[in-house]
């Protein structure tokens, strides 16, 4: 074991650096050169002070400097010793630290549309060209400049005026909720995430329509729950897989379902609700901010067992990330606790601006303008599909509905057709993206919500080329059409 020889330490006493710093530097250099190694004992402060002819406080100050640099430490029974060298690993791969849940997240499929892009039917989002930007900008300026209370933390439920406006609009469609039964969230995606965190553990059963919204599937897989598919037909979801089963949550979209575009009729809604309640589940109804079918919402039929997910993203503007969860107060209070642990609250200044914007009815004017244009695009798509793909049937695509769920002939790979279309500058969503088991399906989701009417026909003609190229090349997988 090496020891520090006081005679090897030279201190400049003529007014240079402080003696304590000089001594600390000398010991540090000895450690760096290997003259002192891990576990070597240093002299006591009394011994070293006597040997160097300095006061004991100088030695104590030097040792404190070295300790702060994590070069030495005091040990009971051993005095002051040199610490073991802390060397960083030669290489570091953060992937080795990933949790099992994160490792289970599939990579997002990247739609690399070949330039020039002819038509992107893959996105089910509102066309921002119809959003009243000038009116909303004025609302932002007026609200933000006059309210200092918006710049602080607040209760996680959200601004009272926004919750009151949401409650008023829900009541117009038969969903009666008080403002204190509404939680404002960062989009409906966060609302469903909070429900999974609040009410499920890994392995719990969550029933979903099949096919269903890909974002909900991603959250459920991340939560580690067991997915119970409810096959969707032209009359809505089949509730029979729920019979005799227990489930924690049942996630449903009875209004213009994504991706099929189907609106479930009242009779089937009652059947699904009865089966869901018998399973012991909390029913999650993912609805539109302005439902148009006139059918009775599930949340209206059983407000004690159904929570409503709402959002501005489907029909107005996705970038706001404003959504809400409406349900019994006991459920909302529990979910609000979970939200508070995650992000405290959805941004208050934006909530205030949205509240004023909705109260003025400007959003409804924008929807009416956009719905007229979407209807023109829908009609063009119906004609183009009949002309270019007469062998392909579809669900959805009725008046006012921008969604088409295409049924390719049995065995044709929807994934391969989507890839072939992408290479031709046309974006469509493969059926596999919406399958609870992630299986390839002979289906495609086509949305005209963002495609200019002038490009609809050309885009579907290119899609037909892609489909026939896949069929000619043997792009099949043996999955029956559903």
Cα-atom radius of gyration: 32 Å
What separation lies between the terminal Cα atoms?
Answer: 78 Å
Strand content: 5-15%
Looking at the structure, the CATH topology of the largest domain is Aspartate Aminotransferase, domain 2
Cα shape: elongated
Low-confidence stretches: 478-482
Number of discrete helical segments:
15
Please count the beta strands (DSSP E, at least 2 residues each): 16
From the helix content, strand content and strand pairing, which structural class follows? Answer: alpha/beta
Could you give the order of strands across the largest sheet?
A: 4-11-10-9-8-5-6-7
CATH superfamily of the largest domain: Type I PLP-dependent aspartate aminotransferase-like (Major domain)
The name of the CATH architecture of the largest domain is: 3-Layer(aba) Sandwich
Averaging pLDDT over every residue, what do you get? 88
- CATH level 1 class label of the largest domain: Alpha Beta
Q: Describe the largest sheet.
A: 8 strands, mixed
Count of the domains: 3
Helix content: 25-40%
């Amino acid at each position: 074991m090496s020891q520090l020889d006081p005679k090897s330490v030279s201190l400049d006493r003529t007014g240079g650096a402080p003696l304590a710093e000089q001594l600390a530097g000398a010991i540090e250099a000895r450690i760096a050169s290997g003259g002192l190694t891990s576990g070597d004992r240093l002299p006591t402060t009394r011994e070293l002070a006597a040997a160097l002819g300095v006061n004991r406080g100088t030695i104590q100050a030097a040792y404190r400097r070295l300790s702060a640099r994590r070069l030495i430490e005091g040990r009971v029974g051993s005095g002051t010793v040199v610490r073991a060298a802390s060397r960083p690993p030669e290489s570091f791969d953060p992937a080795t630290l990933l949790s099992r849940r994160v490792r289970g997240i599939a990579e997002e499929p990247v739609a690399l549309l070949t330039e020039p892009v002819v038509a992107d039917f893959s996105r089910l989002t509102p066309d921002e060209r119809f959003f009243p930007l000038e009116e909303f900008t004025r609302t932002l300026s007026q609200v933000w400049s006059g309210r200092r209370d918006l710049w602080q933390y607040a209760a996680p439920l959200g601004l009272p005026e926004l919750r009151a406006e949401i409650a008023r609009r829900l009541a117009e469609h038969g969903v009666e909720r008080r403002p204190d039964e509404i939680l404002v969230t960062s989009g409906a995606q966060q609302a469903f995430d909070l429900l999974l965190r609040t009410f499920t553990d890994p392995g719990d059963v969550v029933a979903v329509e099949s096919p269903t919204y890909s974002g909900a599937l991603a959250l459920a897989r991340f939560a580690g729950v067991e997915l119970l598919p409810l096959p969707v037909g032209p009359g809505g979801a089949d509730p029979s897989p729920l019979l005799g089963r227990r489930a924690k949550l049942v996630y449903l979209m009875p209004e213009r379902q994504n991706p099929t575009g189907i609106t479930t009729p009242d009779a089937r809604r009652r059947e699904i609700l009865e089966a869901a309640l018998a399973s012991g589940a909390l029913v999650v109804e993912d609805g539109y901010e302005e439902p148009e079918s006139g059918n009775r919402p599930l949340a209206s039929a059983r407000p004690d067992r159904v929570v409503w997910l709402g959002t501005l993203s489907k029909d107005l503007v996705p970038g706001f990330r404003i959504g809400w969860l409406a349900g019994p107060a006991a459920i909302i209070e529990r979910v609000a606790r979970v939200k508070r642990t995650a992000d405290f609250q959805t941004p208050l200044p934006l909530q205030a601006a949205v509240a004023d914007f909705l109260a003025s009815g400007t959003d409804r004017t924008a929807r009416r303008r956009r719905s007229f244009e979407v209807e023109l695009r829908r009609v063009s798509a119906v004609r183009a599909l009949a002309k270019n793909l007469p062998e392909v049937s579809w669900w959805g695509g009725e008046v006012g509905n921008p969604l088409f769920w295409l049924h390719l002939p049995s065995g044709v790979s929807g994934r391969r057709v989507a890839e072939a279309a992408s290479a031709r500058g046309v974006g469509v969503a493969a059926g596999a993206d919406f399958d609870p088991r992630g299986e390839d399906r002979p289906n495609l989701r086509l949305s005209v919500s963002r495609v200019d009417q002038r490009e609809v026909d050309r885009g579907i003609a290119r899609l037909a080329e892609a489909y026939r190229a896949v069929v000619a090349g043997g792009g099949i997988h043996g999955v029956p059409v559903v």
